[in-house]
Design goal:
The protein is built from ten helices and 15 strands. It has two domains: 2-54 and 341-392, Roll (Urease, subunit C, domain 1); 56-324, Metal-dependent hydrolases (TIM Barrel, Alpha-Beta Barrel). The strands form two sheets. Strands 1, 2, 3, 4, 5, 13, 14 and 15 form an eight-stranded mixed sheet that branches. A seven-stranded parallel sheet has the order 6-7-8-9-10-11-12. It is α/β, with parallel strands linked by helices and 406 residues long. A hairpin with a 5-residue loop joins strand 13 (341-354) and strand 14 (360-374).
Length: 406
């Protein structure tokens, strides 16, 4: 199928483009970006005037496998297509839900079967978040095996993840302070991939400043950066200098909103003082889809109301994560790239947004997804923009699933 998206404002940070243009999609790729494109009888022309056309969004941090907890303490995760396409996401990164124990099943049953593009971090703990207890057992930290799995599935695995290790408890021989961090770093070195850290500082043995200032390598990611437990601000309300120093040495800061990891009290002053998230992501799983996360567009809308320009927001959910993931064919509308495209509308009104501490931010803007295209296929079209008016449709213009045509 050939599709032309006409009259939209194209925003593509990878090409430093913000201009009204048409886009031709053909054979699953971006074929042309020009003004006044026209198609033949085999082309579906869709007028998106007044809206923004952007690269398919990338959610850098969510949880997809398994669809429901299969073990008593397993994380309740989302359905990839049902929860992502409606917010314009065409690529989702599972942030360490699976360790080596479950990863092959995850790949075969979910990643390989989904229309959503799914990339993944492998959890350093063999049971991952499918078996959350495994993240506390250092015997289940498997740097050699995790690295081997990452190398074997190089096109899908983007790095190694550690999370939730030994929070608020005294350290001992079975639970050394830095064990999870150190084993994750070893696995990252072995497979030459980045590491992502979901971290709780336990002072004085395990400090946040030591993690981002000495432990992590340039290119590694700290997620949940605006959670209440991190000393983003000093006692005068200023961003601590070591935050900027970590960024200067190449540490990446991911938002990773989640049910308990984003506080306006940290995020707003930090943004106003120039300390912004490198990537905007959800940490979406089943327990937060009704709030405070909801979806990636909801988090993007929070940043609109905090004051971040739309082009900067789009950059942090397209080009920047694509670079970090080493998949620079994504997050772009350049000619020949995969036709992953999102059409967004900016709405104005009186809105409110919640953080993880149940505090409210007043806002006057929000983003809505009008269409999601994945690999040239329209996968989300709630306003029926791609469809003819029913009075003008052919006499037979489609069938319902399960209806037998006689």
């Amino acid at each position: 199928m050939k599709i032309i998206l006409k009259n939209g404002t194209v925003i593509d940070p990878s090409q430093k483009l913000k201009e009204q243009k048409d886009i031709l999609i053909e054979d699953g790729t971006i074929a042309k970006i020009e003004k006044n494109l026209s198609g033949d009888e085999y082309t579906k022309v869709i007028d998106v005037a007044g809206n923004y056309v952007v690269p398919g969004l990338i959610d850098m941090h969510c949880h997809i496998y398994p669809r429901f907890p299969v073990e008593p303490d397993g994380l309740p995760t989302i359905h990839p297509e049902a929860h992502m396409f409606q917010s314009g996401v065409t690529t989702a990164v599972d942030a360490g839900t699976c360790g080596v124990r479950d990863f092959i099943r995850f790949k075969e049953e979910i990643i390989d079967q989904s229309r959503l593009r799914i990339l993944a971090f492998i959890n350093i703990a063999s049971g991952g978040m499918v078996n959350l207890e495994s993240e506390q057992d250092i015997r289940q930290f498997t740097p050699q095996t995790a690295a081997a799995m990452a190398r074997e599935f190089d096109s899908v695995v983007v790095g190694i993840k550690t999370a939730h290790y030994w929070v608020g408890k005294p350290f001992d021989d079975k639970h050394p302070a830095w064990e999870s961090v150190d084993q994750t770093l070893e696995a990252g070195v072995r497979c030459n991939k980045m590491a992502m850290f979901d971290f709780q500082p336990n002072l004085p043995e395990r400090t946040y400043e030591e993690l981002i200032g000495g432990k992590m390598r340039p290119g590694d990611i700290h997620t949940h950066v605006y959670a209440q437990q991190f000393p983003i601000l000093n006692d005068r309300g200023k961003v601590n200098r070591f935050m900027f120093e970590a960024r200067e040495r190449g540490i990446i800061f991911d938002l990773g909103h989640g049910a308990g990891s984003f506080w306006f009290r940290n995020a707003v002053p930090a943004y106003e003082q120039g300390f912004y998230p490198d990537t905007i992501s959800t940490d979406l799983y089943l327990d937060n889809v009704a709030g405070p996360v909801i979806n990636l567009l909801h988090i993007m809308s929070k940043y609109l109301c905090i004051g971040m320009p739309l082009e900067e927001i789009i950059y942090r959910v397209t080009k920047r994560p694509a670079e970090l993931l080493r998949h620079e064919e994504l997050g772009t509308l350049s000619i020949g790239s995969p036709a992953d495209v999102t059409v967004l509308r900016m709405e104005h009104g009186n809105y409110g947004y919640a953080d993880s501490g149940k505090a409210r931010l007043k806002g006057d803007k929000r983003l809505e997804c009008l269409m999601t295209i994945r690999a040239g296929e329209i996968v989300y079209d709630p306003m029926a923009l791609s469809m003819p008016q029913w009075e003008e449709a052919p006499e037979i213009y489609g069938t319902s699933p399960g209806v037998i045509q006689l």
